[in-house]
């Protein structure tokens, strides 16, 4: 049982990754993202997830610089965006991200989407970055099983993490099982589905049963499924609430009830949708 905020998922290269992190998608660069990270760190968060797409890496870096926590205790993730994919462009994009963050290294660097015809070359750049020690771990985001199989057919290094849309309406059980077998840590983005399932009767009932919020029930379900989770918030009390999930455990029956809410329903893009990738061709 994941019972402490200090517990870590151990990636296949031995790097330890916090089970819960703060996502900063759509958090405004400057005061908003800086303050939200400071609140999070004060509450015990040690993992911050950003991306070049989010346009707030500079604010993330400033919050880290002003933090009372030593850099080596923090776990910082960023990602290469689709327009920067390909070997040379990825290396340049990584350098730019590091500069904006004001860091010498990141803890995790991800390929944001499996852009057709480009993600293998992008991965080669990530392998170089990893060998240079400028990323402690490397991984992918939004990769389905067939993308992973295709990537690993030519890869020198297996991805350590696969960050995907994951919530009770999209439980991706087959992908989770595959990643576990491969030693790839699954990580959930948009785990709370932007609050769209907070009125779901099963979740409301369970929140009442455990004297927790619906958000806490969902995030606990993530952890007990072995999935790292990065809920996004810029509100202090929600940042506090989202990490207060280590003092209870869902029963197997209740875990099954939550999983049964799956509808294979995506809120974000489908990684196999060719229309999504047209701007990046």
Task: Describe the protein's architecture and organization.
It contains eleven helices and ten strands. The chain is 39% helix and 13% strand. The strands form two sheets. Strands 3-4-5-6-7-8-9-10 form an eight-stranded parallel sheet. The chain has one domain (8-266): TIM Barrel, CATH 3.20.20.100. It is globular, with a radius of gyration of 18 Å. With 281 residues, the chain is of the alpha/beta class. This is Glyoxal reductase. The record marks 79 as: Lowers pKa of active site Tyr. It comes from Fictibacillus phosphorivorans. Residues 29-262 form the NADP-dependent oxidoreductase domain.
Q: TL;DR of this structure?
A:
By secondary structure, the chain is an alpha/beta fold. It is 39% helix and 13% strand.
Determine the strand fraction and express it as a percent band: 5-15%
Tell me which CATH architecture applies here.
Alpha-Beta Barrel
What do the pLDDT scores average to? 96
**Strand count, sense and closure of the main sheet?**
8 strands, parallel
Number of strands: 10
Low-confidence stretches: none
Rounded to the nearest angstrom, the radius of gyration is 18 Å
* Largest beta sheet: strand ordering: 3-4-5-6-7-8-9-10
Shape: globular
Spatial gap, N to C terminus: 44 Å
CATH-defined fold name:
TIM Barrel
Number of domains: 1
Looking at CATH, the homologous superfamily is NADP-dependent oxidoreductase domain
Order of helices and strands: EEEHEHEHEHEHEHEHHEHHH
Q: What share of the residues lie within helices?
A: 25-40%
């Amino acid at each position: 049982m994941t019972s402490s905020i200090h517990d870590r998922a151990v990636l296949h290269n031995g790097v330890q990754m916090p089970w819960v992190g703060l996502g900063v998608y759509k958090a405004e660069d400057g005061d908003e993202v800086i303050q939200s990270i400071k609140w999070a760190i004060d509450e015990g968060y040690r993992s911050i997830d950003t991306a070049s797409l989010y346009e707030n890496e500079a604010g993330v870096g400033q919050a880290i610089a002003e933090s009372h926590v030593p850099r080596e205790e923090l776990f910082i993730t960023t990602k290469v965006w689709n327009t920067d994919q390909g070997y040379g462009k990825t290396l340049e994009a990584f350098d730019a991200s590091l500069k904006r963050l004001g860091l010498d290294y990141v803890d995790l660097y991800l390929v944001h989407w499996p852009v057709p015809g480009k993600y293998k070359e992008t991965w080669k750049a990530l392998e170089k970055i990893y060998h240079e020690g400028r990323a402690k771990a490397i991984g992918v985001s939004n990769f389905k099983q067939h993308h992973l199989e295709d990537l690993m057919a030519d890869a020198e290094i297996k991805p350590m993490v696969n960050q995907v849309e994951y919530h009770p309406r999209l439980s991706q059980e087959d992908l989770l099982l595959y990643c576990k077998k491969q030693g790839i840590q699954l990580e959930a983005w948009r785990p709370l589905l932007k609050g769209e399932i907070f009125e779901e009767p099963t979740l409301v009932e369970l929140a009442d049963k455990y004297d927790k919020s619906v958000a806490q029930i969902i995030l606990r379900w993530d952890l007990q499924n072995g999935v790292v989770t990065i809920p996004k918030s810029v509100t202090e009390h929600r940042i506090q609430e989202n990490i207060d999930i280590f003092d209870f455990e869902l029963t197997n029956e209740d875990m099954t009830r939550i999983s049964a809410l799956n509808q294979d329903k995506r809120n974000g893009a489908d990684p196999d949708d060719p229309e999504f990738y047209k701007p990046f061709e």
